[in-house]
Design a protein that fits this description.
The protein is mainly beta and 524 residues long. Helix content is 11%, strand content 43%.
């Protein structure tokens, strides 16, 4: 018997209620499962992704490759590149000693393979920024572990693989900044290459950096090494003894120094394939080969600028070399016909000295050298040494040129063989003095300002301008005289030796002044 509509209503209602309850149960269950999964994910990062899903970055810190699951460790933290922000490695009291990471690489000319070791290893052609906080120290040591690849070698006949060690290796560009310091040392082993090595630019914007290598302190293969105005102390030096050693070396690039205290030591303190521009700071470039070292065509010197121009706009520069203080005898570029400057000095203070004791040590050796401002002292030592010597930019003797313009504060050149090489012409806009002995006390002769100066080959020392500008003295102090045991000295313009006032005359003057004061005081 079929149920009536009224009889069906209670059963329909019950069925609807059951369906609603089941739906609610399923929804609540799903929500609970999601909440539990979210809680597990938040509390256990390792469960968020499998190892195969981790993103790897081309950076090794110590023995660790940086991945998305491992972006920080003791004393370091990595932030990957994002948008226009480069990849950044922040160091905070980080310390490591060991061989670091190793990879088999080819040299940039593609001629041979080698192993590259470094505690901080960036194998990407992009930029890496290293931020410094506190004191950070990396020391690379020889890798004694077995299992290194054996196919890398200098040639087919060389069975031993080449190992090159750096404190920091960067296949791209490197920027260093911060309030802390960094010491990168690869100088303790013969295979130690550079304290800091980059294929591209090396920019030290701030912080203090010490880079020591067996071959190089700071090295760039094809980029610019720039030291910023806010830099602290930047020390780059080598520990080896070969002819190729450089404190700061830009193989095919430039060196630009805007500030800081820069200390560069090596067979050549600073060496570039491009230009050197010094705008400020305190720069000391020293050749560290032994004093008995035999003269070499490789020119052991403080500063070497072979293919570009050395420009000094400011700062203090001290270049002390074995054969040369500054070597800027610019080699000609392919097809070059015009003579171009090798050295331009617009300001600052420059002292260049050679310590050559065997033959032709030269304070400054360049081609066309123009001094527009600042002060320069060029000193050569050794029997055949000159203060300044120059060829032209095509390497031809007899056509070098020294130009001294009106803005120069002081220019002094001296050497036992001569102040200025006889092959070097001089054009001076200011009058000077020349002397026949290095001490500058005998045989003084006037050098007039002219478009082409008189022959200076007989002078062992020359000074431009002829006299230093007198000190500006306030009007109230112009007649001030200081008495001494042997009398007092009064300024006597135009005389080389000041006039000496006898002590008795000074005493009479003092007594007269005292009497005058008492007489005025006694007046009503």
């Amino acid at each position: 018997m079929e149920a009536t509509p009224k009889a069906k209503l209670p059963r329909l209602a019950l069925s609807s209620i059951a369906v609603i309850i089941m739906a609610l149960g399923l929804a609540l269950g799903a929500g609970l499962e999601k909440a539990q999964a979210d809680e597990l994910t938040a509390g256990s990062p390792a469960l968020a992704s499998t190892p195969g899903a981790d993103e790897t970055y081309p950076l090794w810190v110590g023995d660790t490759q940086v991945t998305s699951a491992s972006t920080e460790g003791q004393g370091w933290k990595f932030t990957p590149a994002s948008g226009d922000k480069p990849a950044t490695l922040d160091l905070n009291d980080y310390s490591y000693t060991g061989p670091g990471h190793v990879e088999t690489l080819e040299d940039y000319d593609g001629e041979w393979g080698y192993y590259r070791h470094a505690p901080i290893f960036w194998n990407d052609d992009g930029e890496l920024v290293v931020g410094l906080t506190g004191e950070n120290n990396v020391v690379v040591t020889a890798d004694t572990a077995d299992g290194n690849a054996t196919e890398a070698s200098a040639g087919e006949d060389d069975e031993d693989p080449i190992h090159r060690y750096c404190g920091i290796f960067c296949a791209g560009s490197l920027t260093i900044r911060g309030t802390g310091s960094l010491a990168a040392n690869a100088g303790g082993i013969e295979d130690g290459d550079a304290g800091i090595y980059a294929k591209g630019d090396v920019n030290i914007e701030s912080g203090s950096v010490s880079a020591t290598g067996y071959d190089y302190g700071i090295y760039s293969y094809e980029g610019t090494i720039a030291i910023g105005a806010d830099a602290g102390t930047i020390a780059a030096e080598t520990t080896g003894g070969a002819l190729s050693l450089r404190g700061i070396s830009a193989e095919y690039g430039d060196v630009i120094i805007d500030g800081g205290t820069v200390i560069a030591k090596g067979y050549r303190g600073i060496s570039v394939g491009g230009d050197i521009v010094i705008n400020g700071g305190d720069v000391s470039a020293q050749c560290t080969v032994p004093a008995s070292y035999t003269t070499s065509i490789m020119a052991p010197c403080g500063i070497a600028c072979n293919y570009g121009v050395l420009t000094v706009n400011g700062g203090t520069v001290t270049a002390k070399g074995h054969q040369f203080g500054i070597f800027a005898a610019r080699y000609p570029a392919s097809g070059e016909k015009e003579l171009v400057p090798g050295i331009t000095i617009n300001g600052g203070s420059i002292v260049a000295e050679s310590r050559e004791s065997e033959s032709s040590g030269i304070g400054i050796d360049g081609c066309i050298m123009t001094v527009k401002g600042g002060s320069v002292q060029a000193v050569g030592t050794g029997e055949k040494a000159y203060g300044v010597s120059a060829n032209n930019s095509r390497g031809e003797s007899g056509n070098g040129l020294l130009v001294i313009e009106g803005g120069v504060e002081s220019f002094v050149a001296q050497g036992p063989a001569g102040a200025i090489n006889a092959d070097t012409g001089v054009k001076n806009a200011v009058a000077g003095f020349g002397y026949s002995n290095v001490a500058g006390t005998e045989g003084k002769a006037s050098i007039d300002a002219s478009t082409q100066s008189s022959d200076l080959s007989g002078h062992k020392r020359v000074v431009f301008p002829a006299t230093a500008a007198p000190a500006k003295t306030p009007a109230a102090e112009k007649m001030m005289v200081t008495a001494g045991a042997g009398g007092s000295r009064l300024p006597n313009a135009g005389d080389e030796a000041p006039y000496t006032v006898p002590a008795a005359l000074m005493a009479l003057a003092a007594a007269t002044l005292a009497f005058s004061v008492r007489t005025r005081a006694a007046r009503p």
